[in-house]
Amino acid sequence: MNPVQFGQKGTTLTGIYHSPRAAVARDASVLICSPIGQEYMRTHWTIRQLAIRLAEAGIHVLRFDYLGTGDSDGDMGDSTVEVWAENVQLALSELYELSGVREPTMVGVRLGAMISAVAGARGPIHAPRLVFWDPVVHGSEYLANLTQIHAYIVQVARLFPPISSDELVGFRYPHQLRREIEALDLTGLLAGLGSVQVDVLTTESRPEYARLLGVLENLQIKGDRVHVADPGTWDVPEKARIAMLADKTVKAVSSLVGGLAGDGAP
Q: By Cβ atoms counted within 10 A, which residue in 63, 89, 179, 231 is the most buried?
């Protein structure tokens, strides 16, 4: 694992590059687009395990923090969806510089799936394959769920400020950022992705996932559709501060992206 920084002074992004195991190195690369807020914290360990697993299979992997999140510059309250989509484009460029691979795969987790789709639809760098892991399909539903979780924690645990503040489950979501997220609709972005493969991996049965799969079918966008019965859940307030140890899902994503068998052998 090699820490990397890229971007410009004052807007520097921080990431971790996982170089492929030399004995099985391939002409393949993966950019992991993480969630934000409390879901970033909950999935950090799992995403790290995914990156390690893929690198062991010979794949170049870069995971990074958007501007205003994690170890990157800035404050989340000053960030926008467009800026995060531009961050994805910068990360794709950095991954190419590190790996030399021209056709990366993007793996987007939760809101990271939405951000990867925005970047893919509007950015100059083309990723021919997107993998959505439990994607946020409608930004308005995502924020409504976060609001419910925050309200529960305020009422029961008394850990966070009242709902009138700009905080949601320990992270700032100012009005402008909320408006941008609310306006996002993954199904509406799909037509602008061009000729891509879109794989969808879900761990829960949700109406929005059924709608997403229906749109993919109508648009004749090819890809794998995988459901994994992993015990983790996103919207249960009592579990909102528990780390996601999604071993089954990591294995399933690794199998989709890298062709790894269940025991980790490529």
A: 63
